[in-house]
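Work Package 3 (structural annotation) set out to generate three-dimensional models for the target panel prioritized at the project kickoff. During this period the team completed the workflow that converts sequence records into discrete structure tokens, so that structures can be stored uniformly alongside our sequence database. As a representative example, we reproduce one entry of 389 residues exactly as it appears in the project archive.
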Amino acid sequence: MNASALPPLSPRAGEATPVAAALVDPPRRAATRGGALDLLRLLASLLIVVYHFGAEGPMRIERFGQVFSRGFLATDFFLMLSGYVLGRAYGASTLTGRISHGRFWVRRVGRVWPGHLIVLAMMAVLVLVLNALGTDAHKPSRFAWDQLPVQALLVHAWGFNSDGWNLPSWSLSALIVCYAVFPWLWRAVDKVRRPWVLPLIGALAFAVCEVVARTVFDHALSDLQFRFGVVRALPLFILGVCLARAVEMDWPSEKAARALLVAGCVVLLAMQPLDRYALPDELIFDLPCLAAIAAIVLGAGRLPVRHPRAWIEEGAKLSFALFITHIFVGVIYWSAVHKLIETVPIGIGWQWLMWLASFPIAIGAAYLFHTYVDQPLQDRLAPWLRGKR
């Protein structure tokens, strides 16, 4: 394969995306971390990496199962979880006025934008170095310089064309808009007095956006181009907010929540062997998967975390770093691997071992970025973001 060539990120890719307030650590609340939602958050971030690295092995891994081509489902989960996490963490504060709309938006943007900008700058330097060494890393479709500014400003999901660089960051761009409307969304759902109505409101928001996507953009909502990511993200975010408000009203019961969690996992797994594009309409696949993801978020969110696991909590904290760094790490690693394969005869077994090695390398790089770059930077920014300086 071509040196440094990562899989072409199709509109269903990383959507991978990863992501989101769900990728960002919410304020610690008692008995909420180290449980099912954190574990699912970690697994979803790993699925995104598997998806993006899937074409770099000796053969594309989706040949072994359709599930490996479903990175977009992890994005659906993250976008929905973003609305849920913010509702649970900040809903009450926005209602009481403890945090203003403007200050809330600044905090959320301040949490995702600096790390994104650092990784994007590292990627630009990497492309310059690889070009200077005479490689073909600078592909017009992947590293076009005229697309760098809109990604740096995190506006590339607002209708601007940007089909390269750190493309999974489209979800962060879309969520910035979701952050802006969150206080109004929460005030609206707070007026609903019957909790079972809230998931229906979220489903209605999705249906409206689905009609808009098919009418205006001539695509299913999940197949929209990344530059229309706001349209894709908003209904999932709204659904997550609705689920958070329902849980705050102690709905459903814990028994029903367990049933929802199990049923959601069963349905989601049962759908994976199906070929989405062989069905008469994508919605035949998308709607059951979306309902299953919503059931998982609602069920796992409603159940108390009675036995938190530190390793799950720490793994979940790496989700944001893994999301924004794995493409950068992949460019370096796969450029070296494919150059080596072109130069030295390497057996198929060793090629699979090198493919498997990419995952601990990506996780290790994410740990280093989180520990020595992102977290120290957030510690420095915290007083300003909280308005104490």
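The chain is about 65% helix and 0% strand.
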